[in-house]
Each structure stands twice: as structure tokens, then as C-alpha cells.
Amino acid sequence: MQIGVFDSGIGGLSVLYEALKQMPHEDYIYYADTANVPYGDKHREQVRHCIFDAVRLLAQEGINALIVACNTATSVAIQDIRRQYDFPIIGMEPAVKPAVNSVPNKRVMVFATPLTLCESKFVHLLHQVDTNNAVDFLPLQELVRFAEAFEFDTATVTMYLRDRLDGYDLNQYGAVVLGCTHFRFFEDHIRSVFPKDTIIIDGNFGTVRNLRKILISKNDFHHGTGRIKYYVSGMEAADTAMMERYLLRLRQIESPPCASITNFMNTGKNDNE
Ligand code: DGL
Question: In this structure, which of 6, 82, 108, 162 has its CB flanked by the most CB atoms within 10 Å?
């Protein structure tokens, strides 16, 4: 089984990281569209072209399943990609529903890219889920740039977050939703600006779990060796050291999750639920 994992850049490595935990015996092609990153502040048509090119290449490489490890790409193109290919395609969207359900008496803050937040997919999701008007959302595009530049300096990132959150009463928030796969790299920074008991939710666990279920049901599981090939905007990456540095960063920031957080992660919403 060869699984494609696609993102505008390195954000989807946070999903690959989860996939390697839950499905260590498959083969992977990770595709970072680094020539076109970021997607989040571009026009949707421009982004859609980039996505179609990337998925075409992954299909030519013979993938049997695809994780669109990018909330922005999922928002603008998932339905069209599904129409074009017949392998299983799993997308991602901000895990707003589990967040709202898990902190019924508190507010929820969703961080994502500007494009994700203004697309009809998100507007529709909010309409369905946020019946008590308890959800706020904020674009944090600069975090994408920081992540791509491997800029994880605490002071720089924290200052940016505090600046963006100026005027919000952070004590109101019971949950923060990471609605962009790049933001997983800043979980420690985000945790440090919110109150200690605010939970941070991403859709990574649920997304991978869903694909795993599909592959098991198709008897398409455990058919690889755990090999990872990296592509950057149409070419196989000659140097994979940088990608591995990001995976190492994820291992470093991974705190042993407390029981309640694990629970919420287990119900992580993804585009297919
Ligand atoms: N990682 C992507 C997401 O989940 C997009 C980041 C970007 O390219 O702006 O939305």
C-alpha cells in the first residue's frame, strides 16, 4: 500500500507523523508544494491548479490512497479530486464539532488560514455546529511562514500570537482548534499563551484513524515497509534531512497526552465524518 500525503508545505508532516504511528507498515509519498506555499492567502483558483498538479503526479506515482493533509486544500478542492480518482481520499477540516462538544460551557477558538475560514465549507460547518454562538476564529497565516522557515523561536512566535490575540479574553476559551496542519508545530507556543486547562485539538488522529479503517475494510493494510519518499513541487527531493528535522521537532513537542485530550483527539473530526 502506497499512501500519498499532500500539503502546501511541511504542515502535512504532522499528519504523516501520526500516520507512521498508526500505520507503520505502509509506504508513503509525502508531497510538499514548497514552490507554491503558502496556499492560505492566495486566490482559490490559483490554489486549485496547484492541488490538481500535485495530485496528478501522486496518482502517476501509483498511490493507492491519499491524505489531503491540508485544511485549505480540502476546503477548495476535495470534491473535485474525489470525482477524478477512484482511490480513497481523506481530507481535513477544523475539528470544531469535538471542540464544541467537549467544552459546552466555554468558548472555542479556531485557528486556520484566511482561505479556509472564508470558504463555504467552513461557513457551513460553523452553521451546523455552532448553535450557541460559542466559536470564534482567527487567521494566523504568519505561523505558516514561521513553520516553513523553521522559525520556532519562543519569543518571536509568542509575541506574534499575543499580538493577534490582543483584545480577546483568553480565560473564556475551553478549547483551541488547530485548523491548519502547520499549526501543530506551534502547539507548545499556543499552550503557553492560553490558560493551562484550555485543550488543544487537531484532526490528525481522527483523519489517520479513518483512513486506517478504510484500508482494513478493503483488505489493503500492512502491505508496505514503512518507506517514505519525499517530493517537493513535482520533483523527488534530493535532500530529505530537512523533512526529518521537522519530524524530530514533532517528537520533541509531543507531550504525553493527558487522558481527556486523548479522548478528544480520538474523536477528531475530519472531512469524511
Ligand atoms: N497546511 C495548510 C492547512 O492545513 C495550509 C497552509 C498554507 O499553505 O497556507 O491549511
Answer: 108
Residues of the chain with CATH 3.40.50.1860: 2-92+204-267, 96-202
Q: What nine digits make up the cell of 169? A: 479574553
**pLDDT tens across 214-247, in order?**
999 988 777 788 899 999 999 999 889 999 999 9
Query: Which amino acid is residue 73, in one-letter code?
Result: A
The total of other beta-carbon atoms located within 10 Å of residue 126's CB is 18
pLDDT per residue as tens digits for the range 136-145: 999 999 999 9
pLDDT confidence bin for 83, thresholds 50/70/90: very high
Is there an atom of ligand 1 within 6 Å of 42 CB? no
The class level of CATH for 96-202 reads alpha beta
Take residue 262 and report the three cell numbers written for it: 486523548
116 within ligand 1 shell (Cβ under 6 A): yes
